[in-house]
Amino acid sequence: MSVRKGTYALFVTFDRDINITVGALGPHLFRAGTYCYVGSAMGGLDQRVSRHLARCKGIRWHIDRLTTVCDGSEAWESYPDFIGECELARIVEECGGIPEMDGFGCSDCSCRTHLFRMDSGAADELVSRARLERFSDRRAVR
Is the pTM of this model over 0.85? Predict the structure, then answer.
C-alpha cells in the first residue's frame, strides 16, 4: 500500500481551563473549548494523524502538549484534494477561527500560528468549505 500524503485539521477539546507549557513558547492558559490545529504529513498521513490522536506518546511537536491532556480529539483530512498547510490555516481563520498562540506549529513557515480557537459554527464551516473528510486510518484497510 502506498503512503498517503496530505494535510489535516485536528480538533482538540478541553472541558475545563488548563495551563499548559508549550515547549519554548512557554506557559499558556487554554480556556475550555475547542481548538483547531492545522498540520501536514508528507511522510505518511495515516501514521501522523493516528499518532496525534493517541494520548500516550513522547512529546515531539507543539500539538503533543495538547493531545496528551485534552478531553477529546478528532481529525479531518484534505485528501485526496490537497490543500496546503498554510492555505488551510488561512481558511480556518476565514471561517472564524481565532488565532490562539503565536508561533504554535509554524516554525517552518511565516504564518502567525497554526492553532485556532473554534466555536462549533466555525468548525462546521471549515469542514464544509475546505471539503475535509473525517480521518480514517487506512493502513488497516485492505
Answer: yes
Which among 38, 32, 34 has a CA at the least distance from the CA of 16? 32
Which cell numbers hold the place of 73?
A: 480529539
Q: Could you report the per-residue pLDDT of 23-36, keeping only the tens digit for each?
A: 999 999 999 999 99
Is the preceding omega at residue 80 within 30 degrees of 0, hence cis?
yes
Place of cell 489535516: 8
3-class secondary-structure state, position 6: strand
Query: How many Å from the N-terminal Cα to the C-terminal Cα in the chain?
Result: 8
User: Could you report the per-residue pLDDT of 106-120, keeping only the tens digit for each?
Assistant: 988 999 999 999 988
- Give the span between the Cα atoms of 119 and 62, in whole angstroms: 22
Helix 85-94 with 120-129: angle, nearest 10 deg: 130
d(CA 80, CA 71): 29
